[in-house]
From TrEMBL:
It comes from Desulfitobacterium metallireducens DSM 15288. GO terms for molecular function: DNA binding; metal ion binding. CDD domains: CsoR-like_DUF156 (cd10148). One of its GO terms (biological process) is negative regulation of DNA-templated transcription. InterPro entries: Metal_Tscrpt_repr, Metal_Tscrpt_repr_sf. This is Copper-sensing transcriptional repressor CsoR. Signal peptide: none annotated. PANTHER family: TRANSCRIPTIONAL REPRESSOR FRMR-RELATED.
Length: 97
């Protein structure tokens, strides 16, 4: 299976992913500043929650693409569908750990 699934993502969707990743970067920088400035644990935790949410959103978009591409390529190439699905499920389950 071709590992470069991102090349299949629509350019508009790719821009959304990049925007979300830039948001994550901004939140991380904010947490760094907050820790340096001695902000409260509650304020820092709110930023960390925002980071987790933004990363989760990006993960879902990329996971959907991964699942779709795995299935399509398995059917087209005649690969062992059970093996491909098992690998895909294993990878996707790691998102929830």
């Amino acid at each position: 299976m071709d590992e470069d699934i991102l090349k299949y993502i629509d350019p508009e969707e790719q821009n959304k992913i990049l925007t979300r990743l830039k948001t994550v970067k901004g939140h991380v920088a904010a947490v760094e500043r907050m820790v340096e400035d001695g902000k409260s644990c509650e304020e820092v935790l709110h930023q960390l929650i925002a980071i987790k949410s933004a990363v989760q959103k990006v993960s879902v978009v990329i996971a959907q693409q991964y699942a779709n591409i795995c299935l399509v390529e398995a059917m087209e190439k005649g690969d062992d569908k059970k093996e491909v699905m098992s690998k895909a499920v294993e990878t996707l389950m790691k998102l929830n750990q």
